[in-house]
């Protein structure tokens, strides 16, 4: 089963950026660990600081080539109607993840523009938030994934 992990702005700085919030590991190191932990999943990883590039990647993988998307859109989570619309438009289910507990941070981070169109949201478990999302995809049978979230109206 092909699953892609998408990371948005500033997540390329993991391991060096605000270590008290985001930890001291790079995502690339953690991704190697995830690939070992989930041998049954065909994992790929993509990161961009650019909103349009992330939307293009959602369009590219969102119509059958992948069975799931694990997406940490960073600050775009709270501001991007365009990313929200892209998630709503694609068929591939998305699980929203965040390293920090967004609800323990500034108020603007308490609202996710994309959450209504995602299978679910995971936050506050550090890098382990990604592992939890992958466990969801690993344990779900293909017909259980995408159980109708896309049919909700906004």
TrEMBL record:
Pfam families xref list: DHquinase_II (PF01220)
Protein name: 3-dehydroquinate dehydratase
Metal-binding keyword on record: no
CDD domains, sorted: DHQase_II (cd00466)
Taxonomic classification: Bacteria, Pseudomonadati, Bacteroidota, Cytophagia, Cytophagales
Record-annotated site: Transition state stabilizer: 17
Species whose genome carries this gene: Pontibacter saemangeumensis
Highest taxon listed in the record's lineage: Bacteria
Its job: Catalyzes a trans-dehydration via an enolate intermediate.
Annotated pathway: Metabolic intermediate biosynthesis; chorismate biosynthesis; chorismate from D-erythrose 4-phosphate and phosphoenolpyruvate: step 3/7
Entry keyword Amino-acid biosynthesis: yes
């Amino acid at each position: 089963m092909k699953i892609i992990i998408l990371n948005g702005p500033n997540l390329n700085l993991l391991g060096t950026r605000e270590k008290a919030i985001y930890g001291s590991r790079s995502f690339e190191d953690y991704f190697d660990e995830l690939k070992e932990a989930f041998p049954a999943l065909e994992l790929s990883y993509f990161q961009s600081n650019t909103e349009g590039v992330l939307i293009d990647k959602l369009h590219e993988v969102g119509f059958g080539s992948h069975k799931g998307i694990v997406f940490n859109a960073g600050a775009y989570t709270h501001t991007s109607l365009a990313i929200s619309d892209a998630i709503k438009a694609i068929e591939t289910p998305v699980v929203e993840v965040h390293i920090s507990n967004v609800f323990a941070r500034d108020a603007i981070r308490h609202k996710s523009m994309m959450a209504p169109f995602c299978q679910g949201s995971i936050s506050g478990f550090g890098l382990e938030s990604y592992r939890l999302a992958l466990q969801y995809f690993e344990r779900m049978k293909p017909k259980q994934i995408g159980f109708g979230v896309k049919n909700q109206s906004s």
